[in-house]
Amino acid sequence: MKYIRDLSNKDDNVMSVSPQVNKETRPFVGIVVICDSQKYCIPLSSPKPKHYKMKNDKDFSKIYDKRQKLIGVLNFNAMIPVDDSVINVVDIRVNLRDSQSDRYYKGLLNDQLDWCNNNHEEIEKKANKLYRLITQSPEKSFNLTRRCCDFKKLEAVLERRLAKTQSNEYEPKEKAVAASAEIPVRHPAIIRRRKNTGRSR
User: Model confidence over 172-194: pLDDT tens digits?
Assistant: First the structure.
């Protein structure tokens, strides 16, 4: 989660995974879209009490199941730039070894994913519209700009990370191995359903 912490150190609007706020084990789960040729991960969250009173906005969307029950939200204002090197695929197939809580969580993720797949065009359009507004005309909406991440600033963090990774590839093997030990175990994740082959992992 070092990448997320690096981003949050540059922008307070990045969803925290800091040990200081007891969120170091929270995975950064979201869906990936393209904004101006850059991949972005839009955070996917479970519904909180405050979300029931909120309305869909330029930087916020509610997710409903088939019974029109609120099951999640997309926080476009907190989307972050990502690269394939910081993305892990989330396996949301239910298997016999799952605990009851894991089964519930995977079921929820499947329902959320169904909604996202059914609305993927609208999600991408909203993300790109917000991205252009914040990066090109931030003065048009002060309150919106204030609660959104500074996308260009975060892209610079990612660029530095990728440049450092590339330079490490040319270092002596011993040094590269030592550096690889610092790579975080958890990364931002894109939810992608896999075909159920009948085998558990």
Answer: 444 333 333 333 333 344 433 44
pLDDT digits (tens, 9 = 90+) for 56-70: 999 999 999 999 999
Q: At what angle do helices 151-168 and 120-136 cross, to 10 degrees?
A: 100
In which element (H, E) is residue 142 found? Answer: helix 142-147
CB atoms within 10 A of CB 158: 20
| Residue 115: CB atoms within 10 Å | 19
106 pLDDT above the threshold of 50: yes
| CA dihedral sign, ordered 163, 127, 185, 6 | positive
Residue 67 neighbours by CB under 8 Å, 6+ apart: none
Q: How far apart are CA 100 and CA 116, in angstroms?
A: 24
